# Entry
Amino acid sequence: MSAPVTEVTLSVGSERKTFSCPILSVADERFMELALEPLGIQTVGHAPVEVFRYLDAGLGRSLIALNIEISTRMALGAQTVQIGVAPARPEASVIVCLYGRPELLTIQCALFSKCRGIENYEFIYVSNSPEMAELLIKDATIANRIYGMPITLIVLPGNAGFGVANNIAANAARSARLLMVNPDIFPMDPEWPSQHSRIVNDLPPEQVAMFGAPLYYDDGSLMHGGMYFEVDVEFSFRDQQATRCEMLRVEHYGKGAPPQTNPFLVSRPVPAVTGAFMSVEREWFESLGGFSPEFIYGHYEDADLCLKSFTAGKPTWLHYLPFLHFEGKGSAYRPAQEGGRLVNRWHFSKVWGEIVKESIHGPASQAFSTPAERND
# Structure
């Protein structure tokens, strides 16, 4: 059966030309990519506010609705493979979302297997790349045989995004404590499992409902000591009229600082922590609704979850439990991801802009500073 055809007429001055164009259908996932790729390209050499005009006009809501539809379908098609015998009552569940980098499973298992007490933790890997399924099953089987690491592998039929993939894995977890860990996170201290247990068991419940940890670059400098929010003001000009746009931006405390810069390492409440390492009480995670499916692919869903926790009465904390983070190495880059990141920033700014500007704007925001800092 031939594809339907439509006619398109182009006019240049007095010249007119009519073309017959076939109408080809594409899958929703590919349609999403085709819509996002130009948005990412638009940001090169142009203020994002130009793209925000399109998103405000309805494109943003349409893309988010399509993303929810796609991710819901991916969740329904999830397939689980159990490799090795997982602990019957694990102390915590380590959840790792994979996208385009299957080799990180083996590397991560090799390094985590050397940590004392890790046998009390279950490992759940969830893959957003169905084309890697066969290779991941083989790699997980080898990792189990060599390193003794039981692995629950969840394969999705397509890219559900970071947040929804983690929600799926969290639903399959056997423990009351969830650790969201990026595949490019590696241990610095072999005693970290017992240290994590002491943090969870010894500190007040409100300080461990959800917390993050200091993360370091491979050169030893600090990458993450918690996150805070800045507000960027940008303008676009058209027909001698200026349009003002305020957008939230996530920043990391201490990024690039020397490794022992103590103010960024002490236990304290922070506006947000990165989803690269996040320890969450399962009951609290579920009460917040998990990660929102409204964020496309990845970016800003971690900050969104932290602000949901904050507005529900439990700020996110940072506790000293250092890890290496090879930032940006944990997933394959696709052109549409830049467009997705921009849509997510737009959506995050719409949802949280007023709350951030009122009370938690800047690195020394009132809600998270000490009384002494507030009096300075």
In short: Residues 79-375 form a domain with the Spore Coat Polysaccharide Biosynthesis Protein SpsA; Chain A fold (CATH 3.90.550.10). Confidence is low (pLDDT under 50) at residues 370-376. The CA atoms of residues 228 and 363 lie 6 Å apart. The radius of gyration is 23 Å.
